[in-house]
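pasting input
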Amino acid sequence: MDKETEQLLKELERIVEKRQDWLFRFAYMRIGIREDAEDVVQEVLLRVFWRLCEKTSMDNVEQYLIRAISNACTDHSRRKHLKIVPIGMAEQLNVDEDDRQIHEEFIRINRLLESLPLEQSEIVRLKCYDDLTFKQIAELQDIPEATAKSRYRYAIQHLQQMIKKKGDMI
Amino acid sequence: MNEFEDIEQLLKPQCEFKASDTLKQEVMEKARQEVSPRRIVRMWPWLAAACVIGFVMMILMPPKPATEEQPLVAKIVTPKAAETKQAESTPEPVSVNVETPKRQKAKRPRKVVKEEPQDEPVQMSEETRMELFLASLNADEPQMEDINTEEEIRQIRMRGERMISMYEENDK
């Protein structure tokens, strides 16, 4: 193996160590199954490695990773015909004891966001859960930054009203 | 404003997400496999070489000697007993068919021309008899290129002599 290849492998190792948990969280929050989420993460990381090998220009590896994982999750849902997983079904899934906590987290967030329109819920997920900036969200969704901000504001307002209603009922 | 932040806090991750320990190993292993040179056994050069050798052998091999495998077969056709009587009145030559390899391939059955019996001896002039005789000689005469052996030459000579003797008897 030549030096250049070894350097590429080291670069990949660095990316994996730094981003694998973030990528896994991103995928798990949209898929809800550990094995599938890890498959998607693996696919994305290998795609990054091929890009590095082909010396295809990746101006921003971070931005490429975000786009790649987002597209991979969408493709996965299309392949498995799981466009929208009802939360009721997700609760019934048999989950390992180790994964119980993250699965409950998945259910909690999806329960909060289920009443929102899809484009708003996705922006809330990207902003709050995945820690992306509005600029990154706008680039990923191919929308103006202002649109991303306004959608986020509407979503939060909607959630406020919903929580107030629930509090009044209790 | 505080409520807004509270909602944001509510939507933040509440627990840590950890990918499997094997994930990194699997990714690195697959990446190494991608870059490692593959040993591909290429079959097409061997197939091409075999075809070329076969073609060269076909060109360089000597042609098969056709005459050794297919010797000449001489077939003597003798007229039947009934026909021999008629032959006394009308001269019937003994036909000798020499089968060459070309003729064997063709496998054409020879047509035996049966001459109709003549009830009465026809009186012919000297010239017409000579023409008939020559015509009969040419009819079943084997071609010179087909005559190869001494036996054939001897048979042809005998036939000629017989024809001459028959002709002389007729004259008497």
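fyi The longest helix of chain A spans residues 3-31.
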